[in-house]
Amino acid sequence: MKLDSHQHFWRYTAAEYPWIPEGSALQRDWLPADLGRIQRSLGFDGSIAVQARQSLAESWSLLGLADADPTVKAVVGWVDLQSERVEESLAALAAHPRLAGVRHVAQDEPDDGFLVRPAVVRGIGALRQFDLTYDLLIYPRQLPAAIELVRHFPEQPFVLDHIAKPLIRDGLIEPWASQIRELARHPNVCCKVSGMVTEADHRNWKADDFRPYLDVVFETFRPERLMFGSDWPVCLLAGSYEQVEGLVRDHVRHLGPEQAAGFWGGNCARFYLGA
Questions:
Q1: Which residues make beta-bridge pairs with 48?
Q2: Regarding the domain with residue range 3-273, which homologous superfamily does it belong to in the CATH classification?
Q3: What is the pLDDT of residues 17-75, one digit of tens each?
Q4: Are 100 and 273 in contact, with CB atoms under 8 Å apart?
């Protein structure tokens, strides 16, 4: 089964999605029918829909899309991890069979130590009782906090989104690479090979720009803990779905059949679907 581990759907309004750039292609509804037309031509069987708004309402909306479309294999939603009622919110959402995990847009938090705040740690500690994963959405400056967090929860499944958004546009590799190596030492952490083109020069990126970063994550996480993600439609700011898929496909041609099957869907299915 070929799966996209990371994409988004929304019904667009400027008030609900203020992070979407003015005048961009993202300022419209993006729904499963739009993605399905693209994925079928590339042989994908479905995808994981990931939250793009800090809202329980959006989480329920994504679960509704999953009910209506079998290609939406699972949802990564949002809850307020710092709420004293976090268990109540998790219980309600987790009662839906398509909820696989949760995410918070930690990259936008001004406190680089957000992930290890006591209230956040308590919230993440509640995930295991509901058999939920956690997506780490961070910038490189937040990697130290992520390392501390995953060390605290060795039994909690984590996945790093967008290889922690290294400074590809500037060609900087350190200290990102060293910290990725430290994070990857924890076997409960996987990594999505996703979100790279939007961290590069949107108009002038080339495949060689990504090779040093891809080499690091393939060396450290190994193919067994890596999964493809498109970050569609956000990727459209810098490249098409086909370009994103082709960029990664060229890099993984050396993988054997078992590793390739894992990277293109098997690892994602095990992590999110328990398959």
A1: 74
A2: Metal-dependent hydrolases (3.20.20.140)
A3: 999 999 999 999 999 999 999 999 999 999 999 999 999 999 999 999 999 999 999 99
A4: yes
pTM of the predicted model, to two decimals?
Answer: 0.96
Buried b (16+ CB within 10 A) or exposed e, 208-232: ebbeebbebbbebbebebbbbbbbb
Q: Which two tokens stand for residue 152?
A: 């605290």
Determine the Cα angle at 75 with ends 123 and 88, to 5°. 35
Which tokens go with 203?
């108009």
Cβ(180)–Cβ(216) below 8 Å? yes
Nearest to 252 by CA among 240, 262, 266: 262
Distance in angstroms (rounded) separating the CA atoms of residues 229 and 23:
25
User: Is the Cβ–Cβ distance between 190 and 158 less than 8 Å?
Assistant: yes
For residue 74, count CB atoms less than 10 angstroms from its CB and return exposed for 0-12, middle for 13-18, buried for 19 or more: buried
Pull the structure tokens for residue 90.
Answer: 């998790």
d(CA 143, CA 248): 23
Environment class of 95 (CB within 10 Å of its CB; exposed 0-12, middle 13-18, buried 19+): exposed
